[in-house]
Amino acid sequence: MIEEETRLARDALSAVLPYIAYPRELRELVETALQKSDNAQTFMESLKGEISGENDTTKKTDCRIFLSEFRRNVSGKV
After folding, report:
1. Cα dist. 18→2, 40, 41, 55 in Å?
2. Mind listing the pLDDT tens digit for each residue in 7-30?
3. What residues have CB less than 8 Å from 12, skipping those under 6 apart?
């Protein structure tokens, strides 16, 4: 991902951490997806794919909270 999108993802992660039940797991998931993604769209698709296979509803909710904040950050920069 380009540097700006990576920064937006990390800013979104920092913003939502107080509301997250599994912060370590979410941080690992985000960092892994950042490394594998070329742009914001593939980053979000990667995270969506990860949570679709998750059985723990709390972890799914954590990821959805993050994705919502990330989308807000990206749309604010466009």
Report:
1. 26, 23, 25, 22
2. 999 999 999 999 999 999 999 999
3. 66, 69, 70, 72, 73
Q: 26-45 pLDDT, tens per residue? A: 999 999 999 999 999 999 99
Domain residue limits at 56: 3-77
Q: What is the 3-state secondary structure (H, E, C) of 13-67?
A: HHHHHHHCCCHHHHHHHHHHHHHHCCCHHHHHHHHHHHHHCCCCHHHHHHHHHHH
User: Domains in the chain: how many in total?
Assistant: 1
pLDDT digits (tens, 9 = 90+) for 51-74: 998 999 999 999 999 999 999 999
What's the whole-model pTM score? 0.92
Alpha-carbon distance 8 to 11, whole Å?
A: 5
